[in-house]
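pls read this protein:
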Amino acid sequence: MKLNPKEVGTERDQSDRFWRQYAPDEWRQNGWRITRPLAGVPFLLTIKDYTVGVRGPHGCEPTYVDCLVDQNNSFSPVHFPHAAEAQFACWSLFRQHPTLHPRFILGRGTQFSSAPWTEALWALMEVERHMVEQRRGPQGCAVIGQRRNRNSGWLGSEQSWFIARSDAGELQQRLFKRSAPERGIVKVGLINRAGSRRVVNADLLAARLIRTLARHNLSRSYSLSHINDLGDFSFEEQAHWVHEKDVIIAPHGAQNTNFVWARRCTSILEIYPANYFIPGLYLQLARAAGAVIFAAHQGRQDMSKVFNYRLRRAVRSRNIFFDVEAAASTLKLMLDARLQCLGSVEM
């Protein structure tokens, strides 16, 4: 992914604006900075983020709504989480025109993911797909729209995934049966990764979190699930695993595209390696689902490592040793934040 200052923000942004806007309530423990990030940062698209018109004979009555994705408004959509950025943005556009037949149009020369996760999401959306091989797209009178810009997730270019929270909610309703979670049982999920950014002390971390839960006035009304690689599951299994959790802790990575399936008020912590702090990507998706978000990282961002592809690749590939005491303290805050969120929803 090629980045430029407009898509990342500047080093001055990091020093002057970062802590004021991103981390107004930061706290530190054993070298880790824990934050409730993205304060004041919008997390939803608006229709103004799209270029929208009508294609077809003059005065025609549209029967289709087409969403165009090309190299100008998408980042490397051959990778399934970046494909999901385009899919979700188009899904929101389609829902703006519920009586029209939705069609996804892939621009010439744009490679798109064929991963099982991507294909399963298409099936859930029930969207017709076309690839533009010539200058003209598919036939028929259509409302045609496309996102104006692409966002990288970095400071100043935070990603927005949907126009409305209800867009994520509709996908959840399509996938899940209406069943209430078990009352009184707090389900905590710890996700790891098989490759880079793996939490190398995950077993110790899980054991410490279990002790924290037992001492948090929860008696035996909790459970903790620890999964080595969410990618070992099918699309539906990944979604259900996330959806049933009340608290989720995960390193930054593609598996967190599944944050879209989180229930409202789920408390989510994303962990980052040093010099790769990018909460403006998957935590923005968690916000769209209605989750309460937390972030854990070490130190300020060295933007020279973001702009340089070789250095960026090196820092984002580092495994993570997450301090267990910092994790335990954060879990208590996450449990309290979840209860506070649930209380405000019920009012």
